[in-house]
Amino acid sequence: xxxxxxxxxxxxxxxxxxxxxxxxxxxxxxxxxxxxxxxxxxxxxxxxxxxxxxxxxxxxxxxxxxxxxxxxxxxxxxxxxxxxxxxxxxxxxxxxxxxxxxxxxxxxxxxxxxxxxxxxxxxxxxxxxxxxxxxxxxxxxxxxxxxxxxxxxxxxxxxxxxxxxxxxxxxxxxxxxxxxxxxxxxxxxxxxxxxxxxxxxxxxxxxxxxxxxxxxxxxxxxxx
Amino acid sequence: xxxxxxxxxxxxxxxxxxxxxxxxxxxxxxxxxxxxxxxxxxxxxxxxxxxxxxxxxxxxxxxxxxxxxxxxxxxxxxxxxxxxxxxxxxxxxxxxxxxxxxxxxxxxxxxxxxxxxxxxxxxxxxxxxxxxxxxxxxxxxxxxxxxxxxxxxxxxxxxxxxxxxxxxxxxxxxxxxxxxxxxxxxxxxxxxxxxxxxxxxxxxxxxxxxxxxxxxxxxx
Lengths: 224, 220
Description:
The complex is a heterodimer of chains A (224) and B (220).
Chain A: H1 3-12, E1 20-23, H2 27-30, E2 42-45, E3 49-53, E4 74-81, H3 84-92, E5 98-101, E6 105-107, E7 112-113, H4 128-134, E8 137-141, E9 153-154, E10 169-171, E11 175-180, E12 183-189, H5 195-201, E13 206-208
Parallel strand pairs in A: 1-2, 1-5, 5-8, 6-9, 8-10, 12-13
Antiparallel strand pairs in A: 2-3, 3-4, 6-7, 10-11, 11-12
Helix pairs in contact in A: 3-4
Chain B: H1 7-11, E1 19-22, H2 32-39, E2 46-49, H3 60-65, E3 69-74, H4 81-88, E4 93-96, H5 99-111, E5 115-118, E6 132-135, E7 138-144, E8 148-159, E9 164-165, H6 174-177, E10 181-192, E11 211-214
Parallel strand pairs in B: 1-2, 1-8, 2-3, 3-4, 8-10, 10-11
Antiparallel strand pairs in B: 5-7, 6-7, 8-9
């Protein structure tokens, strides 16, 4: 399984039956493929669908039926359509249970940058800020480091911040962090990832969550 | 059928320098026949309120290429490189809003609300310099409502009175834009007689719609 799929599978494990979930572009989109047995979620997309289904077969695309990434989708039984103001009322108004997002960076307070790159013209934000502000729970799925091997979890953001809200969970191929008002808490790390490797590849300080013991020994495997 | 007019006739109501709302999420739900008719006139210097400004050479992207757009107000312009180029050349002014703030500003404009406070964007670059207030210990920024001289919207079908029904996710910004402009022109795939659409199914009641234009062959 590819690393991105592994991250998506871990994230899927945090969803509960009946959750209304908004998936961002990239790794988050893959989460829908790894829902645990017996867990049905309702996928919301900002352009006005509750109840997004799988990608249509080639030749079966409907030009009026797309997701936020403008890719063709289908709908499940019981789906509904609504206008953009209603869709963002759902988002901003706290009616979305979980948003899963990709990021450029996360800082050590769990705040995200995922909309703009400094030095370039800032010409797109879409629904990124609304989703961070309003979703009941926000899960970040990201590679632990950039393609150049630099940490994506950093002390201070190098990119413009998307929202002052801290996310609830950060899931990478190496580890899972929760957040509290003081910062990041390591809750699990992947098999064969040592604490030394984790510290080296994480640009921010983090604490180990109470009840979890990692210092001085190999961390446990998988998400809890 | 007195609301039904041709796209060419619709353009006689539009002046250079107008502020126009255009429905659609990318090209989905964009009134492409009306946009094309506008591009075939000499009307320019436009202020366009739309989530995006089309794609290169498609939809509103045609107007961008022809340098007929003075200012774009929307949430996501990155999908059209022509917009970035025009912006960097100083030919196009951009006002960027979070998508929920954009849609709510349009809704408010149509509902007689002058402005509102939203937490979205507070403490970020997008809201720099905006008036702020704190509610329930949370920072909020002031957003004024948006209105326009005209709205071009797209529905799947309508009756001769102008009652509108939309298709799937092509609904997006269209119903709210129908409420927020002085002149509303709806492009539709199909026109039916009054009474053929069950009242429960009507999304935009006819009082919001001034004129109806049938989608053209070239509107595809």
